[in-house]
Amino acid sequence: MIVNTESIPGHDIVETRGLVSGNTIRAKHLGRDIGAGLKNLVGGELTGYTELLNESRAEAVQRMVSDAMVMNANAIVNVRFTTSAIAGGAAELYAYGTAVVATPSA
Question: What per-residue string of b and e applies to 23-39 under the rule 16 or more CB within 10 Å gives b?
Answer without folding.
Answer: bbebeeeeebeeeeeee
